[in-house]
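Handout, section B. The chain below has 228 residues.
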Amino acid sequence: MAFLIDIEGIDGTGKGTQAQRLVERLTRSGLRATLISFPRYEATIFGRAIGEFLNGKFGSLADVPPFLVSLLFAGDRFESKPVLLAALRENDVVVLDRYVASNVAHQASKCDGGERVDLAQKILKIEHEIFDLPRPDLVLLLDLPVPWAQRLISLKAARSYTDRAADLQEADAVYLGRVRDVYLSLAQTDSHWRLIPCSTAAGVRSIDAIGDEIWSVVASARTAAGAG
């Protein structure tokens, strides 16, 4: 089975860009590698429903209970499970642009205290135990303060699932800050996570600098796992 890498971070951190660049670099090094991005907005029934949710069809973020929202994202991955398992069989490395941790961070961020912990545990149980989705070998957290992230969000090209410049999640700075807090907590408690700072005191780091650090971390992790 392939080495499974999950790239995480709040909206605007460059996950898609870095995931694609990593796959290209892995391929140039002679490895079989592929990229899967979640949600799969156009490919699954759940993915299309997620697009509607993010476009405001069901109301604001506060209008829909986070547990119910989490089921949409989990369902998208469950519906995509055959695609993911085939990719793991056919490649040396599979890179994911968001995965289960994204569901945990985004939905648990809407809760506090014990309720946050309980929801996080439910999501992990549903996705990894009930749906039996594989756990990643490495999670890369691209970390960027919210003000910088929202500046980069404003530069994004149009997306197929929304007619807005920023979807419900991207437009809410307070919400993004809470999501970032959950991500940082996850990174501190799981040995499979690695933090990749995307900014310095001077501003956002270059795409190449971030990519080089990702490459170094991936090479080290694969060596430690005996992946070669």
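Note. Residues 100 and 124 are 7 Å apart (CA to CA). Compare this with the example in section A.
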